[in-house]
């Protein structure tokens, strides 16, 4: 399995956010930590590496969250669930079809055969408030790049995880057969209505601010 890792970290209020850019497509995997409890947003490639980080930091893993169903953001989920079998993957049901074909799409885009362990347990997401133990945040339905895209907004910390909906000075692809440019633009506009000081953590690349993307016209 290809392993390339770039690591960054930031502490916001009482929350720590660790960023690991993993795999050939350098998908951002986020560890969101508070009081040693940990959520993983987009468990990308390299399950062994992620599990080692969890153990090394003595973290209690309590949730797996997907911004969307593309393989480069989910390849580690099944293996992580082998170690944490009661832990579901929270994902919007409109992206379940993408989860089922992780191996097929990974082989197509990576140009080699892969043996991805498929997620064993999924929990359907819906727009609105979500609480997982001590974490309380908002699920924002942001389709367009995929039919079931979701972003995760933490108002107290003023951060939002946007997956492949919105990047620094760019938006997600909408040329897939199941994508929708119109829906994507509406989703981007929804994110840009958040407070201007909100930090955007995208699915690839560097962090940015709502204010910056408003000025830049995304």
* CATH class value: Alpha Beta
Please indicate the count of domains: 1
User: Termini, distance in Å?
Assistant: 34 Å
Proportion of strand residues: 25-35%
CATH superfamily, by name, is Ribonuclease Z/Hydroxyacylglutathione hydrolase-like
Largest sheet at a glance?
Answer: 7 strands, mixed
Number of strands: 15
Main-sheet strand order equals 1-2-3-4-5-6-7
Query: Could you name the ranges where pLDDT drops below 50 across 5 or more consecutive residues?
Result: 1-6
What is the molecular shape?
A: globular
Radius of gyration, rounded? Answer: 16 Å
Structural class of the helices, strands and pairings? alpha/beta
Number of distinct helices: 6
Order of helices and strands: EEEEHEHEHHEEEEEEEHEEH
CATH topology: Metallo-beta-lactamase, Chain A
Share in helix:
10-25%
Let me know the average pLDDT.
92
- Tell me which CATH architecture applies here: 4-Layer Sandwich
Question: Could you give the topology of this structure?
Answer:
Layout: E1 5-12, E2 15-22, E3 27-34, E4 37-41, H1 47-56, E5 60-65, H2 77-83, E6 89-91, H3 96-100, H4 102-110, E7 122-124, E8 128-132, E9 135-141, E10 150-154, E11 159-163, E12 166-167, E13 170-171, H5 181-191, E14 199-202, E15 208-209, H6 210-216
Parallel strand pairs: 4-5, 5-6, 6-7, 11-14
Antiparallel strand pairs: 1-2, 2-3, 3-4, 8-9, 9-10, 10-11, 12-13, 14-15
């Amino acid at each position: 399995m290809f392993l390339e890792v770039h690591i960054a970290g930031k502490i916001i209020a009482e929350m720590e956010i660790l960023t690991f850019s993993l795999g050939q497509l350098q998908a951002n995997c986020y560890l969101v930590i508070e009081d040693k409890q940990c959520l993983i947003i987009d468990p990308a490639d390299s399950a062994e590496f992620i599990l080692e980080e969890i153990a090394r930091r003595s973290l209690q893993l309590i949730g797996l969250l997907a911004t969307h169903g593309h393989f480069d953001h989910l390849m580690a989920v099944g293996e992580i669930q082998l170690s944490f079998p009661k832990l579901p993957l929270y994902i919007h049901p409109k992206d379940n079809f993408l989860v089922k074909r992780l191996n097929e799409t990974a082989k197509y885009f990576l140009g080699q055969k892969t043996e991805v362990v498929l997620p064993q347990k999924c929990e359907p997401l819906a727009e609105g408030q979500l609480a997982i133990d001590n974490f309380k945040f908002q699920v924002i339905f942001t389709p367009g790049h995929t039919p079931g895209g979701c972003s995760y907004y933490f108002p107290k910390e003023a951060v939002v995880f946007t997956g492949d909906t919105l990047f620094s000075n760019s938006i997600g692809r909408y040329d897939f057969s199941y994508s929708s440019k119109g829906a994507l633009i509406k989703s981007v506009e929804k994110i840009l209505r958040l407070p201007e000081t909100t930090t955007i953590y995208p699915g690839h690349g560097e962090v940015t601010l709502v204010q910056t993307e408003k000025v830049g016209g995304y």
